[in-house]
Amino acid sequence: MSIDVFYFSGTGNSLQVARQIARHVDAWLRPIATYDRQTEPIGPEDALGVVFPVHGFSLPRVVETFLKRVDLCRYEYIFVVSTKGGSPDLVVRDVSRLARRQRRTVDAFFSLSMPNNTHFIHDLDTDDEVDQKVRRAEEDVLRIATVVQLRDKYIPPQAKTFSLTLLGAVHRFLSLTEFGGFGRRFSTTSACTHCGVCVTVCPSRRIVMGKGRVSWDTGHPCYVCSACVNYCPAQAIRNRGLKPSRTQPSSQYHHPAVRALDIAAQTET
Which residues are within 8 A (CB) of 228 and not within 5 positions of it... i.e. 6 or more apart? Predict the structure, then answer.
């Protein structure tokens, strides 16, 4: 069985999960951010996997765009893996709706609890909590790989209708306001060394380095991934939408096994 595993990741949680799944099931690992800029048809392979973080209780914008464009009918088996900090989400509902537009169904959905990678709402995890969640996720990936290899079906129970309606309203508000103008609130402190790491890790390529300063091009969408904040080696990037972390002095998190170069690679063409 030949498998495509597409991923989107800002601070490495989803990338590491996608890597592990691809290794266990012998799949091709493909970045969504790269294919978002291409127009040729994707597939066909026998199976399609999509791995991404939950943003605002549902799909990141770039993942939604990808799922609308990819021809799901080219694949015999489809599975979805979402990573999140622990809140309920709309992933099953919203991905199923996108699939039905193509008269297709998704065969399996999985959700993994991972370390919080932003202090937009929740605080960052402590080092001990990070270690525990990373180890647990590695065990969960083995179970996911078994289901995928057997092409089994797995649809988890969904939240109550009222909960889905409430979360849907919140997600629509966040989408319409771009997370309360999150993408327009970035700035750098005097600690910035102009190293360019933020430019390379930004999946939407909206960060510009020029004339001795870093700027965010508001003409490009912000994917709300916080890669620039969390991978800055000088801890010099701030966003007014992020409250100071009480658990991490640096107010930064990225998956311990994922480097800035790994995140940057998902936008290479």
Answer: 186, 198, 201, 202, 207, 237
- 156 and 183 share a domain? no
* Full domain range(s) for residue 193: 178-267
In the numeric block, which tokens belong to residue 252?
């930064």
The larger pLDDT score, comparing residue 29 to residue 39, is at: 29
Q: What is the Cα–Cα distance from 237 to 115, expressed in whole angstroms?
A: 21
Give pLDDT tens digits for 147-177. Answer: 999 999 999 887 666 677 888 888 888 888 8
Q: Is residue 167 part of a domain?
A: no
Q: Judge if the upstream peptide bond of residue 44 is cis by omega within 30 degrees of 0.
A: yes
Instruction: Give how many domains the chain has, as a whole number.
Output: 2
Residue 171 is assigned to a structural domain of this protein = no
- Residue 73: CB partners within 8 Å, gap ≥ 6? 102, 103, 104
Q: What SS3 class is residue 130?
A: helix
Same domain, 10 and 120: yes
User: Are 193 and 153 members of one domain?
Assistant: no
| Torsion 119-128-248-140 (CA) sign | negative
User: pLDDT by residue (tens digit) across 183-209?
Assistant: 899 999 999 999 999 999 999 999 999
pLDDT tens digit string along 215-232? 999 888 899 999 999 999
Give pLDDT, residue 253.
95
| Residue 31 belongs to domain with CATH number | 3.40.50.360
262 CB burial (10 A radius; 0-12, 13-18, 19+): middle
Residues 92, 32 within the same domain = yes
Query: Which CATH number belongs to the domain containing residue 250 in this structure?
Result: 3.30.70.20
> Helices H, strands E: what count in the chain?
10, 9
- Burial environment of residue 166 by CB neighbours within 10 A (0 to 12, 13 to 18, 19 or more): middle
